[in-house]
Amino acid sequence: MQLNWIKAHVDFLGNEAADNLAKQATKEGTRLHLQAPKCHLKKMLMNLSLNKWQQDWDSGDTGKAIFNILPKVTLTPASWSRESILFATGHGPFPSYFYRFRLHHSNICTCGENGDSLHYATSCHMPLSYHFRKLSAENTQLWWKSLLSNKLSRIKISKLISFLTENENFIKQPPDATRLRPRFLSSTKTSDLWTKTLEVQYLEP
């Protein structure tokens, strides 16, 4: 048997006969049920799993902080460091996290605001050297993606987490903070950056 390529629809008898038989088979032929190859089944199961995962991710009540950053599920892992994960999830050295799991009596920072990761990264005067530009409400998702995809920003986040871990007692509001106010006594050089507030004294108002 010899196979040769020929142009289609140019009045070759054999080619025309094959076309007619193919059309006839679609109408009169016997339906065959062939087993799908394993690669096809694996792809189908993968798509079903991803769709179910996406539905659970969209409707779930947990992980909403990460959902706002990564709304689409994927099998490709995010290239985040441990510190970046702590920062993005809020499961780090923050009063808001300690308070949530009853490890501290208050979620308020010593400066009087809610002590979450965004507070220390954008507004708190203690880790001033590690601040990022404040995000706007309409650009929240873009801000997070830009922050966590930039190598220099991730390094800065790592330094911020280290700073907060080392100075955990200074960022927590003491139990009697309702009648005390903080006074910052000096500035200290940390990692070649000047950062205020390592020494804190509480005075009567």
From TrEMBL:
InterPro entries with a match to the protein in the record: RNaseH_domain (IPR002156), RNaseH_sf (IPR036397)
PROSITE patterns: RNASE_H_1 (PS50879)
Single GO term (MF): RNA-DNA hybrid ribonuclease activity
Domain of life of the native organism: Eukaryota
Domain RNase H type-1: 1-27
Protein name: RNase H type-1 domain-containing protein
Protein source organism: Araneus ventricosus (Orbweaver spider)
